[in-house]
Amino acid sequence: MPDSSPIASRPDAARRSSPRRDLTQGPIGKTLFLFALPVLGGNALQNLNVTINAFWISHSLGVQAVTAISNANLIIQLLMGAAFGVSMAANIMIGQAFGAHDMRMVKRVVGTATGFFVLLPVALAVFGGIAAPHILDAMKTPLDARADAIAYLRVMFSAMPFIYFFYYMQMAQRGGGDSTTPFYFMILTVLLDSSLNPLLIRGIGPFPRLGIAGSATATLIAQGISLLVMLVFLYRRNSHLLLRADELRLLKPEFEILKALVVKGVPMGVQMIVLGVAAMMMISLVNRYGSMTTAAYGAASQVWSYIQMPAMALSAAVSSMAAQNVGAQRWDRVAQIAVKGVMIGFAITGTVVVAVYGLGDLVLGLFLPPHSAAIPIARHIDYVVLWAWTLFSITFTLFGIVRSTGAVWAPLGVLAVSMWVVRVPFALALIPRWGAEAIWWSFPLGTICSATLAALYYRFGGWRRARMIDPSHLHMDAAAQPAEAHSV
C-alpha cells in the first residue's frame, strides 16, 4: 500500500528537496556510472586500509603477528559475510520502497533493521570475547601466535557493533540513492584507522603501546568515531534512514520484515563464504608446488582482487538502481540497466585487463621482490587467467539485477556450481596429468560457467516474479503516523 504522506503524493517536490539521486529517472548509463564511482572508491579504500594495517603490523611486530591476524581475519571475514547479506537485503528493501515513494515502508524497514543491527552485534561481541580462545584453538592456530591472535580477535569482536551498524548505514544510504555520503565517511574511517595504527601498535607519543591489540583498537576507534559523525550528519540532514523520538516504536521488529532480512540476506552472505572456502581450497592445491609457486599465485591473486573491484562495485550499484526501478514498476528501465551494466562492466574490466597485460612485470613487481624467480611463474598464471575476469563482470552485474527483486538463491546456486562442480573438481581431476597448469585453467573454466549460467537465468529464470516481502503479510497499521518528507 503506497504511502499517503506528502512525499508520496508529491514525489517531484520530494526529489527537489532531497540530495539523493533518484535512480528511476534520467539517462541510465550516466546515472549508473556516476552512482558506481563512489562505491568503487569505497571498495578501493577498504583494500588500501587492509594493506596499510598489514604493513604496520608486519614491520612493527614481525612474522608471529602476521600469522595471528591471518588466523583472526578468517573469522572476521566470515562475520562480515553475514553482515553483507543482511545489509544487502535491507538495501534492496529500502531501494524498492524509495522507488515506490512509500516513505512509511522505508521507516518500517529502517526500524526493524536498526534493531537487528544493534542487538545482534552486541550479543556477538559478548560471545566473541568469551569464545575467542576456543575458536582459535579449533582452527589449530600456531601456539607462538595464539596469544596475539586472542588479543587481536577480542578487540575486533568488541568493535563489531560499530562495524556492523556502519556497514548497514552505508548500504541503506545506497538503497536510498546516495552513494556519495558513505564514500566520504569511508575516507574518514580509513584516515583515522591508518593514522592510529602505528601510534597504538608502537606507543608513539601519548598513546599506549598495545602491540597487535593496538591495530584492532585503531579499527574500533575509527569505526566508532565515523559512525557517530555520520549519524549526527544524517540527523542534521533530516534523513529518512534514522528514527525520531516519536518513531522509536518502530524498533520493535516486524516479523515479516525481519524474516525477509534473514531469509533473503543469508543466501547473499553465503555467496561470500562459498567464494572464500573455494579460495582456501585452491591455495591448498597450489601449496603442493612449493613456496615459489605459492608466492607467484599470491601475487597474481592480489592483481586479480583489483581487477575484480570494478565489477563488485558495479554489482552493488546495479542492485540499488534496479531495486528503485522495481519498486517504481519501471521494468523497461530494469532491462536497460542490465544491458548498460553489462556493457560498462565489460568495458571497464576489459580495459584494466589489457592494461595489466601490457604492464606485465611492472604490476607483479609491486607484490614480489625484484628479480624474484616467482615473477615468471606469476606472469604465466596471469596470461592464462586474466582475460576471464572480463566475464566475471558479466556474472556479477546480472547477479545485481536479479537479486534486486529478491531472487537470491539462484546466484548462490550459480556460484556453488561454478566453484564446486566445475572449478575445484576440474583442478583435482587434471592435476595428475597437467600439474599446476590444471589449477590455472580451472579459473577461466569456472568463470565461463558462472557467466553462462547467470546469463541463462537472467534470460529464462523466474527472477521477475520474486519479491523481497509479500505486502499482503504486512500489518499496515504498524506505522500509523504519516511520514514526513525527509532526505536520505
TrEMBL record:
Organism of this sequence: Phenylobacterium montanum
Keyword Transmembrane helix attributed: yes
CDD domains in alphabetical order: MATE_yoeA_like
Gene Ontology terms, MF aspect: antiporter activity; xenobiotic transmembrane transporter activity
Composition bias, Basic and acidic residues: 12-23
Superkingdom classification of source: Bacteria
Record's subcellular location: Cell inner membrane
Keywords (A to Z) from UniProt: Cell membrane, Membrane, Transmembrane, Transmembrane helix, Transport
Region annotation Disordered: where it falls in the sequence: 1-24
Pfam families: MatE
Compositionally biased residues, Low complexity: 1-11
A GO cellular component entry from the record: plasma membrane
Transmembrane residue ranges: 74-98, 110-131, 151-169, 181-200, 212-236, 257-283, 303-323, 344-368, 380-402, 409-432, 438-458
Primary location recorded for the protein, binned into one broad class: membrane
NCBIfam families hit by this protein: matE (TIGR00797)
Membrane-topology descriptor: Multi-pass membrane protein
Record-given protein name: MATE family efflux transporter
UniProt xrefs under InterPro entries: MATE_fam, MdtK-like, Membrane_Transporter-Flippase
